[in-house]
Amino acid sequence: MIALVLLTIPVLTLAGQCGRLGAPARDRRLAAVRVAGATPGQAVSLAAVETGLASVLGVGAGFGVFFVGRRVLHRPDRDGRLSMPTDILPSWPWLLAIALGLPLAAALVAAVALRRVRVTPFGVVRARQRQAPRPWPAFLIVPGVACFAAVQPIAWYADRHDLDLPEAVPVALLFVGGLTALVGILLGTGWISHLAGLLLHRLARRPAALLAGRQLLAGPWSGSRVFAALLACVLVGGGAAGLRAWFVANAANQEEYSRWSAAEHGYPYHPVGVDPFYLRTMDLVDAAVLVGLAIAALGLLVALAETIVAHRRTYASLVASGVPRGVLARSLLWQAVAPAVPAVALTLAVGLAIIRVMMSDTFGAGDSLLDPRFQRHVPIPFAQLGLFGGGAILAILAMTGVALLLLRPSVSTDELRTT
Asked: Could you count the other beta carbons within 10 Å of the beta carbon of residue 254?
C-alpha cells in the first residue's frame, strides 16, 4: 500500500510537467490580460481557474477509464476468483472527495507556483534562485531512514510491555520515513547537479561537455525537478528489491531449520520453499514500479521538451554564432546523464538501506530454547538493483534522444526575430 501511494508521485509530477510545457503560451496570455487592465492578482487567479477547469476534464476522463476498465476486467475464473480486486469500489464520499479535491488541489498548486512570478503588461518575469545549492538538505535522508529503523524497536517494546500498538503507528512511520527520504534525495539532487556541472566545467575538454557544465551551473535545480518522478520510482524499486531478498533469505533459513529438525527427530524432510504469496506480492510491487518508471519517463520527456522550447532563443543564438547542432545535442545528453547517474545510485542505496535497517538478518529459532538459532545475512540483490537502476538510466537516454528531435526546429534563426 505504501509503495503504491508513493508511486502516485510520478503521476502528479507528469501533470506538473505538462502544465509547464504550456507555460510560454500561458505567459503571453497573462501579459495580454494585464495589458487589458487586469491586476496581478486577477491574472494569477485566472491561471489558477484555467488549471482547475482543465483538471475537471482530466478527472472526468480518469473516472471514465476507471469504471470502464473495472467493468471489462471483472472476469472471475472457474473457481470464482478474480485476477484483480475489481469487486472493491471506493465509497461515494471518497469518490466525491477525489472528484472535487483534485481540481481544487491543481488550482492551488498553480497559484502557489506563480507566487514568485511577476506578471506585467510586457510579459512574465520569473524570479530565479542564484545561490548555489548546498548539500545540507540531503541530510533529511537520515531521519527518513531512522523512521524505518525505529519500527522494530517500537514493536519489541510494545510486545515486551504488553502494550496494544495501533496499526497506524508503523504505517505512519514507514510512510513518513519514505517521504522524508525522498524529499532529501530530491533536494540533494540540486547539489549533485551543481557538483556535476562544476566538475564538467573544470575537467572537460570538449565543447559539448563544457556547455553542459555551464548549463548545470546556471540551473542546478532543474535536475531535481526533471528527475523527481524517476527517483521516486527508483527509491521504491530499491526498497522492493531489498524486501524480496529478505523474503528469500528468510525462507532459506526456515528450510535449514526444517532440515535440521527432520534429521534431529528422525522423520522425513519435505522441502517447503518460499511462500508464493510473498513473491507474488513483490511481483505486483515490481510491476507497479515499472509502470511508474514508464510514466516517469513520459514526464521526463515532457520536461526535456519544455527545456528545449524554453531555451530555443539561446540555442538559436549559439547555432547562429557557429556552434554545430551536434554539439548542442551532445551537450543536452551530458546535461541529462551527468547528474542522473549519481542520483540514481544514491536513490538505490537509500531504498535498500531503509529495508536493511529494519530487517537486516533473518533468524530461524526452534520450538525449544535448546534448539539451535540459525542466522543468515541477507545478500545485496545486485541483479534487481541493476535492473531498476539500469532501466532508469536507459529511460533517461531514450527520452533524451526523443526530445532531441525537437532541437532542429527549435534552433532555427527565425527564433531570433523580435516583433
From this structure: 19
Q: Which residues of 278-292 are buried (b: 16+ CB within 10 A; e: fewer)?
A: beebbeebbebbeeb
Please, what is the Cα angle at 148 between 193 and 287, to 5 degrees? Answer: 70
Q: How far apart are CA 151 and CA 120, in angstroms?
A: 52
375 strand-pairing partners: 363
Burial pattern 375-384, b for ≥16 Cβ within 10 A else e, equals eeebeebeeb
- In the DSSP assignment, the letter for residue 119 is E
**Residues 8-45: tens digit of each pLDDT:** 766 766 666 666 666 666 777 777 887 788 787 888 78
Cell of 177: 520515513
Helix/strand number for the chain, H first, E second: 16, 4
Does pTM surpass 0.90? no
Interhelix angle 228-265/325-356, rounded to 10 degrees, is 40
What are the residues facing 120 on neighbouring strands?
123
Segments of 97-233 assigned E as strands: 117-120, 123-126
- What mean pLDDT comes out for the span 205-233? 81
Cα 117 to Cα 23, 30, 92, 333, 344: the distances in Å are 12, 11, 38, 29, 31
| Angle at alpha carbon of residue 380, lines to 155 and 175, rounded to 5° | 40
